[in-house]
Amino acid sequence: MSTSTTLNFESLGNVVTLAGRFVGVFILVIFAFGPILQVLETVAVRWGFLLPDWATLGGYAVVAAVVTVGYRGSIDDLTVFCVLTFAGSLVVGFVFGSFHVESSWLAIGREFALFVGVVSLAAAVAFRSDWRAVFRSDEST
Amino acid sequence: MTRFTRRRLLAVAGGSFVAGAAVRPSVVRSTQRFDAGVHVWPGPHGDGRGTGAVPETTGPTEATVAWEYEYRAPSVSAVPLALADETLIVGDRDAMRGLEPTDGSQRWSYALPHPFADSTRPWRNAVQLPPWIVDDRVIAVFDTNVCALALSNGRLQWRVQTNTNIDAALVAGNTVVFDGRISGTNALWALDTETGVERWMDTTDGDRRLPIAATDGRLYTVRYGDRWSVAAHDLETGEIDWRESLEGRPLASGPRAAVTDDGLYVGAESLVALDRDGGQRWRADLGTAFGRALAVAHELVFATDVDASEVVALETTTGDRRWSASVSNLARPGGLSVDADTVYASTTDGFRALEVETGEERFRFDGASSANGDTDTTTSPTASGPVIPTVDRLYQSVGNRVYALEGRA
Predict the structure, then answer these.
(1) Residue B124 covered by a domain
(2) What is the residue-wise DSSP string for A13-32?
(3) What does the UniProt keyword field contain (chain A) (predicted)?
């Protein structure tokens, strides 16, 4: 019994790992970046375009691919960042209210500013704090 | 050393939240006005009062076609004309178009893109209601979307999405009011026409209320139910001042009303006159197929009785009939409009121009029948809209065309 090709299990493992990472990041991105993609859609409408549904999924996939390839930090930090961004968007929507109106530059700018605020706050907590120590005191000692 | 320090991120977050809090809806919303505006014919029946009248204007005394415009795809549910000084707004089935009033050439068009459209499925959001012109923008309803377009070039300025079809929209001053459904509850919604920002929302009783007329800071609505009722709202807050139940059936094709300093005139199976505080003054029975066409000017209410093929003029104070004129081929629902000395009654092939004081025919336009070919102008609500009178031209939508008519001034 012999085979003419040999499987490179290490490469295969890397591909599977990358694919799994992509799927995980994709899910996180949907949560975290949904609000900003809605803002971008309203910008498109303002310019006379209405994006089809698959374009939204495509947008998520592109962002997830960029993050999967480009992000070299801890996946735990990324998870916390995305969850905080999602939760923050909900809280901000409740606290600051919504214009209901779309495609007015004022409303677009406001939504964008609030999203930047949420992202900044989430990043400050997720990437720049010792948040692990809160939950895993044994690791910090 | 990274640029994204925690301190900087927190500063950005704080700044963003302060900016978001500062740009509240109440801050950016324009100051509410209740004036009728400056445009010649800003809505389907004139201004927000719905009187269908320009009593200071003396129109031409005969009608020859200056130009005609054929719809790309006639709308199925809109009476589609509004007129500003420089632009005639036309509602096609899936696009708003701005025409040059002097020669009918198209200056711009706007179609709200459909999210599921592609090269094989050229779907569009349909124009559902007549356009309104307010200040320098056009208010248009595409399916479930209320949009503001620039009057000069048709570019989208803002859009508000609802999750149900909109049955009626009315512009009063710089406020557009329409019926909508929010989280399963019927609501009356008022938006600032300049920014699209909400002014108020009224969900009283959870009833479906349709705006029908407005003047002097007061909005009038109709509610459908076992019985139908008219209500008066404060246009600043949406709160109901009074409501009055009326007898008879409401019209399936939608309400028609006009308001003046004297009172409110509402058309259904019959024509009912109410005073501004809701008391019923008189009621005129005009047959079972009351045409829904209505105009008020010169202390007269003009209405059509389609069963009897008549246009009638009633005294606004008593409802007594001053004159009636036989007009064949009255359009249904059609339209009536009035200028200084003429009443224009829409017919299936054009209109009849009648003397205001006597009802005698002055001139007519019936040239639309041949141009429209086999178009069934008796069934489509857009078959024959009201005539828009100006000093030198008359504009009318008949069947699948828009006509500009001129004659001796």
Answers:
(1) no
(2) HHHHHHHHHHHHHHHHHHHH
(3) Membrane, Transmembrane, Transmembrane helix
Q: How far is CA B234 from CA B168, B172, B303, in A?
A: 18, 12, 28
Q: Can you tell me the distance from the alpha carbon of B142 to that of B127, in angstroms, rounded to the nearest whole number?
A: 5
Tokens describing residue B116: 């599921």
What is the tally of structural domains in chain A? 1
Contact B243, B231 (CB under 8 A): yes
Structural domain contains residue B1: no
Cβ-based contacts of B10 with chain A (< 8 Å): 120-121, 124
- Asked whether residue B10 is domain-assigned, the answer is no
Rounded Cα–Cα distance for residues A49 and B114 (Å): 9
pLDDT digits (tens, 9 = 90+) for B117-141: 666 666 678 888 899 999 999 999 9
Alpha-carbon distance B381 to B167, whole Å? 14
Distance CA B103, CA B89 (A): 13
Least CB–CB distance from A102: residue in B16, B116, B159: B159
Task: For residue range A50-87, list pLDDT tens digits in order.
Answer: 666 677 788 889 888 998 888 888 888 888 889 999 99
List, in order, residues 6 or more apart from B160 with CB less than 8 Å away: A100, A101, A102, B145, B146, B147, B191, B196
Chain A's closest residue to B13, CA to CA, is A117
Searching chain B, which residue's CA lies closest to the CA of residue A124?
B6
Could you report the predicted ipTM of this complex, rounded to two decimals? 0.75
Average pLDDT of the segment spanning A27-41: 83
B158 lies in which domain range? 36-116+130-406
Q: Do A53 and B115 touch (CB under 8 A)?
A: yes
